[in-house]
Prior knowledge:
Layout: E1 6-9, E2 16-17, E3 20-21, H1 25-34, E4 39-42, H2 50-59, E5 69-70, H3 72-82, E6 85-90, E7 107-112, H4 121-132, E8 136-139, E9 145-147, E10 153-155, H5 158-168, E11 173-174, H6 180-189, E12 197-201, H7 204-213, E13 217-221, E14 240-242, H8 245-252
Parallel strand pairs: 1-4, 1-12, 4-5, 6-7, 7-8, 8-11, 12-13, 13-14
Antiparallel strand pairs: 2-3, 9-10
Helix pairs in contact: 1-8, 4-5
Amino acid sequence: MSGVKGFLIDLGGVVYQGDAALPGSIDAINSLRQRSIPFRFLTNTTSRPKASILKKLAGLGIDVEPDEVFTPAAAARTHIAEQKLSPHFLVAPQLMEDFQNLETGTNPAVIVADARDGFSYENLNLAFRQLEAGAELIALANNRKFADDDDLICLDVGAFVAALEYASGKKALVLGKPSPDFFHSAARSLGLEPDQTAMIGDDAEFDASAAVKAGLRGFVVHTGKWHAGACKGLDPQPTGEFADLSRAIDALLP
């Protein structure tokens, strides 16, 4: 497609599912490397630290530098330092690895990510009390659902963010997808403008439609959490759809 000079690529449900690479995905990534087409992995995964994501990619045979993977936790770390926040974390314990030696301040904030079993009443209520006392609500992601390692669809962090928003009357600041700033930051790292960049993901709403809203091209692939009718009613509509990452890259390469 004319005008596309670089790619942002989702991971879970696009490059891999569970512990296995999806068919053709590694070849597609290798094709980008061989042709010197710039790309970044843009993931809303907030249940594991970046080091774990890099290790998983390496195990699949995908060599990647740390700065080639954009995560909401990295965006949150920057935001916390810049805004001098004093964070109360409602996240999976392993994600705290990404917040080690964090420069904090005095402005209270609740940071919510995919805490999985940590979303107990006790923990949600502790976060709610922080919000009632004046803390800002920050979500690392706001997705509705995800495809787990067993290929079954699961409830994602967005439902718990919505519960805290409803109870507190506060609107969460979302730092991962679908935040335009998240897309724009990744595009800038490629040295590209948003309209020169294509986002490829399996979430029609938070990957593809959100990318279009942010000024990028947004493409959804029929893998991972995708299902028939996923694009129905979305505004804006994704730029296009492909069967998988390999077919998307083949069609979009200049």
